[in-house]
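From the pipeline queue, job 12 of 40. The input is one protein chain; the requested action is below.

Action: predict structure.
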Amino acid sequence: MSLFSKPKLILWPKAKAVDLYIDRKENNTLTFDINLWQKCSDKDLEPLNLYFKQNKFDSVSVLIPDDIVFTKSFTYDTKIDTIDKKEVIGLAAGLVNFKIDPNALDYKITQVNDKTIIQSFIYDKPKLDQLKENLNIIGVKISQTTSVSTAISNSISSIYKQEFFLIYPLNDQEYTLLLSKNNSVYLTINLKGPSLDIQKIVNYSNFYFSSITKKIYIPEGHDLDIITTTEMDKTIYNESQIAQSLSKASNLPLPVLGEISTSITHNTDIIGSSTNISSSPKNMENKKKNILPIIAVFIFTAALASVIIWFILNRNVSEIENPSDMDQVSQNLTPTEIPTPTPTTAEISKTIKIQVLNATDINGQAATLKTKLTDLGFESVAVGNAKTTATENSVQVKSASISAYFESKLATDFPATYTEDLTSTSTYDAVFTIGTDLSSLKTATPTETEEE
């Protein structure tokens, strides 16, 4: 921020009030008792209008609550490059509590390994239109919009680069649980406390990442009972401390910090092209002024790097007095190939009885593993659903030879913990319990049936 530029102004409209935050150390918060999500009269807007006029603010960044923008990711077991909006709407239908408008839908496609993740942001367009109308009455434009969950993700991603869950309090009883990584939000859900059963949501994280996400941030000062069978890596966060680490005023909440510190935003065109002021002549002039110092630094850095490279290359050339020395070095560095022994695994009887139990919320998993086992030649494979959920794969066997065989054959496709705790009187010689996503094994869509 330059010496004479205005500090950034963030507007956070809530159900019964509007909070304003200014990026400065003091006198940086205000609250107006007005609901901008519904139609307001000139009289209702007068206090807010007066503030903007007196302080000469004509644009504002807006934080969109997560009940106004629905964030949800969907996964495909194959790689796709495009998807029709109608299909995204069909995936989200029934999950949102408002009618989905195609013009109020934003999404992006990300390919991870053999999966495709559709990250969708679905806005309550009538409410956004009403917000825009109210601000237009007082002559204020929306420079950018960011969902509350995305702004929170921006804050945490600046200090933690891996995937994580975070619980953010909305009030004394309501909380938002979000799943995020690197400024991208994959899932948000509103929960009522103080007892929060999040196990199913924790299991869902395996859809988006290679393993279940165990890192979770919990707000300081909230007596929450986190119910989950997965052993989570819990970190208590303090908003004031995070603000100080970002060199911001300690009273600024986490979403505001994320909105101030980063520029990850959603498509402002969703609430009308007139809200996007990035193409205005004044704004373009400011951008030119701001970019000149960056260009100067880049040119200086490039020149300095060229001098250093020239010096190193010339020094290396002068040190090589005899070209044959380089040939000798090359001969000395020639690697010697070491034969790699081929491991052998003792075969076992293909008539042993096997049971496969699905302990996840993903349909068809047991049938998927059954196909893999029948491909290995096993004839007696029963499938079913486990009575309890699991987050890791496990295999119970009767003998060490069975354990060694499957550990070798399924090391890549089904990594698991093996135990030899089945008794000689057990019905099955091996019991597989599935606790992770096996979508990478799918070659078709099998039908899973329970067998006892």
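Job complete. The chain is about 30% helix and 25% strand.
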